[in-house]
Structures are given as C-alpha cells and as structure tokens.
Amino acid sequence: DAGITQSPRHKVTETGTPVTLRCHQTENHRYMYWYRQDPGHGLRLIHYSYGVKDTDKGEVSDGYSVSRSKTEDFLLTLESATSSQTSVYFCAVMGSGELFFGEGSRLTVL
Amino acid sequence: KNEVEQSPQNLTAQEGEFITINCSYSVGISALHWLQQHPGGGIVSLFMLSSGKKKHGRLIATINIQEKHSSLHITASHPRDSAVYICAVVSGSARQLTFGSGTQLTVLP
Fold it and tell me: N or C: which end of chain B has fewer CB within 10 A?
C-alpha cells in the first residue's frame, strides 16, 4: 500500500471553528485527493493535487482549501466549519496506476 | 448529470448466484478502478483497467473503451461479498478521479 495515514481520525468541533485534516503518504506518489462521503451522495471530490503546490478544485470545493507543500502531505482546511461539513473525509493516493485510500476521518460539526 | 453512472443501485442475491454490476461513463478516461467498501470499513481497490479484462479469484472486471462501459462480475457469490462496489474513472492530465454513486450488494445465505 501507499502507507496512507489520515489524522485526526475523529474530530468534534463547533460551527465557525477552523479545522485541518492531514493526509500523509510514505511512497512519494504524485496524485492525492480529498473526498467526502455522505449517505445518499457517495464519494464526492473536494480537491485534488497533481504535484507539490499543484492543486485543483473538485465538485464540492466551496468552504474548503488545500495545501501541498511536500509530496507526502496533503492538507484539507475548513476555514470556518459549518454543520453541512459534518461528514466522513477520505484521502486517496494514486501511483503506479494503483489507487489507495486512507481509513477516513469522521468530522462532526455541532 | 453524473459523468459516471452505476447500475443497479441496490442488488440482493442468493449465495452462489452470478452477479453483474455495470458502470457507464461519458468522458474520455485513461483508466477505471473498481472499489469495494464494507460497512463501516475502508475502501480498497479491486481492479484497475485501461482495456480488456482482469480476473482475481471469483471477481472479473471488463472494460469496453469504445462503448465507455465497464462491468464487474462476481461468480459464486458469498455473503462476505456483501459490500458497496464503486467504479471510479481517471481523466485528464491531472488524473482527476470521478466516482459512481456505488452499488449496495447484499448476498443472502
């Protein structure tokens, strides 16, 4: 696998607070992705990265920003969390034609 | 309209039945992945296809690039195959990933 670690795995926060989720990989793969998974919606792309400092928006990017200053880390930031951002967030990494997923981060915004 | 359509959304089968899940897409792709997610569990990749057919145990995946269609088959289904199966397509030079909505498979003993 790509040695993917997501942190934190669980977080409860209050509306209006900033939240950062981290995705870390150990294999130096180029492509990294952040998704959210909600009942009835499946997996929806938030942002993705195709290299250091190279990122682009997905279909549900409003309210989210990302940064990739190192190959191994892809950070997802909710600048001011809202209840609609309560979800399970998955990081994915693609390399050598294979696709690997992190274990997910469950975020609850009260 | 979603660029990736899966069918059926839900499927219930008896143990031992042959199962087919379909995925159609509307964009040009460089690859297609079939994924499996068990309840409360993580997501694992079953296959990556860019052409033709692949087989792993009781699972077979095919893709027809011209028709923009892929199928996942499960032979001799078993209750442990119960999971959500998701297809994902890779497109563009930046390798954007787009997912289908998933197929919830339940195999009854």
Answer: N
Q: Which two tokens stand for residue B59?
A: 């699972």
Q: What is the pLDDT of residue B2?
A: 63
Nearest to A31 by CA among A19, A42, A23: A23
Tokens at residue A11, please? 């977080």
Q: Which of B35, B44, B97 comes nearest A45 by C-beta?
A: B97
Dihedral, A49, B88, A45, A20 alpha carbons, nearest 10: -70
Which residue does chain A place closest to B98, by CA atoms? A45
- Render pLDDT for B43-95 as a digit per residue (tens, 0 to 9): 999 999 999 999 999 999 999 999 999 999 999 999 999 999 999 999 988 88
Torsion from C-alpha of B42, B27, B58, A104, nearest 10 degrees = 0
